[in-house]
């Protein structure tokens, strides 16, 4: 099965029992950033620290990617990657991606209640091979293999969301940082990584600050 970068991120963000490894304030902006990054890797948009520029409006055949591409094409004003991450991130996006993976037989949706009152949903693996393929590819890069653009972007987003240490606890911090900083990459990939990293970190920081302020 072919999965998007956002779906790969989601598979790595949940353990085998279907519980998330990071909270939604970290995961939701990361998923939004992954959507933007995929469009950049597919050469549909160009990302810089200042704006997202449409290059090619041709659809890619994925509902989430194509819907985002349509929104970018319809936006008449140049917007920063941070602006788009803020607009795209949501629990609804996360649920749509999880539901899609469940419909494809990759995950199973299990609903239950805590104390017979509070509803919870878990997403355990139904087809472990899909995540195993992603994990194998990322592990190879973290061990020293030359990264492709998709793997590098995925690692950089995991790092921004603080998922890397939980999904790959034995990975070298120096290697993760090297990939996340994009120094090894060509200019276009390096710009994409830098823009998505900055956008995800800004969105996570804003969400954390808002939570602290509301609880204070």
TrEMBL record:
One of its GO terms (molecular function) is phosphatidylinositol-4-phosphate binding. It comes from Nonomuraea turkmeniaca. The keyword Oxidoreductase does not apply. It is found in: Golgi apparatus membrane. Pfam families: GPP34. This is GPP34 family phosphoprotein. It comes from the Bacteria. GO terms for cellular component: cytosol; endomembrane system. Keywords: Golgi apparatus, Lipid-binding, Membrane. It is a peripheral membrane protein. InterPro entries: GPP34-like, GPP34-like_sf. GO terms for biological process: Golgi organization; Golgi to plasma membrane protein transport; Golgi vesicle budding; retrograde vesicle-mediated transport, Golgi to endoplasmic reticulum. The keyword ATP-binding does not apply. Transmembrane segments: none annotated. PANTHER family: GOLGI PHOSPHOPROTEIN 3 HOMOLOG SAURON, TRANS-GOLGI PROTEIN GMX33.
